[in-house]
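Students often ask what a 'structure token' actually looks like in practice. Rather than answer in the abstract, let us consider Vacuolar ATPase assembly protein VMA22, a protein of 160 residues. Its sequence is given first.
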Amino acid sequence: MSTQKIEKEAASQLLDSLYLDMFHLIEDHTQSRINIERTNASGAILLARTRFQQGGNNSVSVAQIPTKNSTEFNALCRVVSASDEKNGNEISIERHAVEKSTGYVEPLNWFSVLPPMSLRQAASTFKDCIELLAESANLQRQLDAIINNISSMKQFIIKQ
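Now compare that with the structural description of the same chain:
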């Protein structure tokens, strides 16, 4: 009887610890989502500034955007899912350097040889936003894992 009580007490302490971890992850995830919103809004404002500086509607045409008849190119940024024993599956961003010979081209140069500084800043801001999205996805995965552990632990305590 005393071993069951000890096991139940240990399980309850572990459950408390899991709840505490869950609250910390919720706080981190919320902060991450706020950072994503701020970064995305900042990039959108920079794009609007670029459009305004370029003179409104005539700054970008459909002819400048690649189509299926355009030359092949590779993405400069890829989402990669890596398996890790400590953290499980983690999402990370793999970036490549601009190199025309291997097919990695800079999309900013589709619109002009010398894109405006605000357009370069917008591109940089959206690149940062991608990193924040990967961080947020990893936090969400960790949060889901803890919620599953809490559910398992509750069922274990109920069975005792």
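One point worth highlighting: The radius of gyration is 24 Å. Ask yourself how you might have guessed this from the sequence alone, and why that guess would often be unreliable.
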